[in-house]
Amino acid sequence: MAEQTEGEVQIDASPADVLAVIKDYEAYPTWADGITKAEVMERDSKGRPIEVAFEVSRMGVGAKYTLAYKYKAKDGGVSWTTRSASGAVRDIKGEYALEPSGKGTKVTYRTTIVPAIPMMGFMKRQAEKIIIGTALDGLKKRVESL
Description:
By secondary structure, the protein is an alpha+beta fold. It contains three helices and seven strands; from the N terminus they run βααββββββα. A hairpin with a 1-residue loop joins β5 and β6 (89-101). α1 (15-23) packs across α3 (121-145).
């Protein structure tokens, strides 16, 4: 059974600036550990990516998946679901929720990943730490460096 992983971080930037980095999927290989390729497959009428294909590789385990994105109103974030997946991942759902907070943005990351390969408890917890670290710490470093 899949379990949701969640974490949050404060980023010293506006929700619009944070969302701009999140939506720049093709740049993920430059800052998101493990993502080796990201290609926008489809955009909506506002030019926002709504379908993105990813390739990931970490510690000898690889996966390819395509995610469908839905954007929240007023730069409130984005959610995603799996369009297709192969390799080590069977299904991915998640979201970045963005809330103005003080001089910046509180970013909450939630995801549920169904692995296609069995994972022992320790390995699963390590994988979750890596995912949260990339999703939040990597995002924070990227946004605040621009």
